[in-house]
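notes to self, project folder thing:

trying the whole complex as one job this time. last attempt i did each chain seperately and stitching them together was a nightmare. two parts in total, labels are on each line so i dont mix them up again. if this works i'll redo the older ones the same way
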Amino acid sequence: MWGRIKYFGRETVISLRRNLLMTIAGVITVAVSLALFGGILLLSRWVDHGTERIKGGVRLEVFMNVEATDGQIADVRSSLNTDPDVKSFRFFDKQDALAEFKRIFRKDPDLVKNITADALPTSYRIVPETAEKTSNIQNRFEVLPGVDDVATPEEALRGLLDATNTARIIFIGLSLILLMSSLFLIVNTIRLATFARRREIEVMKLVGASNWFIRVPFMAEGLIQGLIGAGLAVAVVVALKVGFDRWFNSPNGFFREFYLTTADAVTVSIYVFVLGIVIGLIGAIIGLRRFLRV
Amino acid sequence: MLRFENVEKIYKGDVAALSDVNVDVQKGEFIFLVGPSGSGKSTFLKLLLHEEQPTSGRIIVAGRDITRLSHWKLPQLRRNVGTIFQDFKLLPSKTVYENVAFAMEVIGRPKHVVQSQVPQVLELVGLESKSDRFPTELSGGEQQRVSIARAFVNRPLILLADEPTGNLDPANTVGVMRILDSINKAGTTVCMATHDGRIVDAMRRRVVELDHGRVVRDEVRGLYGEGGEQ
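result (full assembly):
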């Protein structure tokens, strides 16, 4: 068994070196396309976190007084239920508010430490029937008893959400095209490798080497290209995560609600890695298909 | 050991390369396959190696009908059938020893078996002193002996030889035939396609002659031309 592993390792390294330029081209394209893909996933998550409040078309937030009575809160709810301009709404209790507060001010632990759920207001997040109804609703609810304020989340955030949705489609399209070309490059590298070793392959078939035995070094070659490319792309993803943390960390800035967790970076890295492995293996399989017919 | 039953082979849209071929070869036999170019000798050997499929009929190798062999069992057939060619098909980047060892390594034989078998087989073909040479440093006869060693090192039941002496001078031809003869005497069935009448006449073994894809002669102790024992 050990002898076999050594054999496969040796053959793979020889083959990778023989086609060094093609190998490098393959690795770089895999890396670039996966980095683009990982980068856009990361950006999407960053925007998702930052725009949670306006997800699903929320344009209004009715904040109750901190001391508002349950009766006042219930009255506002029934008004919302009967208001013809309100399409839907959802209630944020004090615990929800605390969770959001902690998230927004995560870089300010002193502030978070001293806050309790009781000190925070409850609120309603409202989706109007049409965007034009926003100010009507605002005017009607501002004056209800127990209501502190009716806020409209920044329009700029909404613009950003739309822009990133467009960017997401464009960049995912671009990275798919690049992923295809990296796949073709790997296919080509493997074809060249089988061509360079056609005498060995002929002899192996002649003496009865199993198909798997012949294929494994080439599969390993494709896999290694995919893995190295994915490794480089993961490095880019990690660098982006660190960069996002550093560039947008002002507690009062426009992007204060935007953030990335370590879990985000890990998830994206796993996607990138799996995709790299899949591209390498599929490239090798396609590259081997034609040549290995007896 | 090796049987063709009513075998017919028609290449795409062309005339029959083999038609109604019936040949039965016993274990340990040595047969010559003779006939002019295009008579079907190469097709005969390709069918045995499963490189081509017969259009109809059955081919039995070592008790197994190889016309219904599934793709993944093909390596097993190839391990039972050693092959040598006119152009040797040696790997130029490997030494004599490595060329022979390669045939064992790629079917997963353990290292200690390789190390004990390869020198034995090289001795059998008389090349033990040249095991570190590269193929380009050898004469044609020596290269063919290396390829015999490679074909034989895994102890196949059958050895197929396609014009093995086609590129060799008479002295080297004799050397190669001696080795094939001794391999045959040790129990391996040998099937050799050749144009070389002198070899056939000297060996006096079974001769199967093909012409236009048909068996026109099958003699137990034959000559290259007509006139052997029926």
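what i see at first glance: The longest helix of chain A spans residues 155-196.
need to look closer tmrw
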